[in-house]
Specification:
The protein has 2 helices and 16 strands. It is mainly β. The protein has a 5-stranded antiparallel β-sheet, with no helix packed on it. It is elongated and about 80 Å long. The structure holds FE2/S2 (inorganic) cluster and fe (ii) ion. Fe (ii) ion binds next to loops.
Amino acid sequence: MVDIETEFLFNSWYVAGWSSDFQHALKPLTILNEQVVIFRTDKGIPVALEDACPHRKLPLSHGRLHADRVECGYHGLTFDCSGSCVHAPTQQDAPPNVRVKSYPLVDRYGLLWIWMGAPDAAEPNEIYHIENFDNPSWGKTPGGSMDIACHYLYITDNLLDPSHVAWVHVSSFAGAGTEDVPLNIDRLKDGILVSRWMQDREPPPYYAPMLSFTGNCDRKQHYECRVPSIAINKSIFTPKGQGGGRYRSTRQQFCEYFIQFYDAG
Ligand code: FES
Ligand SMILES: [Fe+2]
């Protein structure tokens, strides 16, 4: 049996943070219960290393960053971007086989993605694809972030749960049948989708000004989670009679959540 308090999927891409969170400075993070230090080199290339010097375990984030190398703040062992020790102050040659773990990183969609598992298995093409990210006819709202003091599965639970909308989001997403229309649940290859069409309903006051039509609507709530930590919420509105199986495409409101794991607590 898997203990959900401690077990994580390691061979997966995770969001380490916004790309702009990482500069030419040593930033310590705990991801999947591992101590990691992330920085950009003097050329802007992101690097993630294990945050523990192999000599006496001082976190490398307590040391100094020189161009593309990290110097330990205890006795000066120095590591390159691959995690290899390249300088030991009291020795002529760097000790062979002394290294820290190095984690694959990809800068994409304004996010820094980290691979915490076996480095050879990291395939950047498997990073979750954000449709229309570069399509100029779509808008983008700059994101923020929230720290939430709970196990991450409570957040995925919430983001897969349209049934709370009528009771919690009374002045915004509620209405149009959210209180009583049954939900469909579909198991996906790498996730789960909870959704429902609510047909021939009055648009909720919150959404009505955003719609490109008047009168009643068909509305879809699409709540999807992809393993391990990506949630996609779509709100789809069509003029009444054009939703459900007849839906092709029309105006959508669409947001994605990237859930970041700092620890298992
Ligand atoms: S603990 Fe890092 S060099 Fe000694
Ligand atoms: Fe909610």
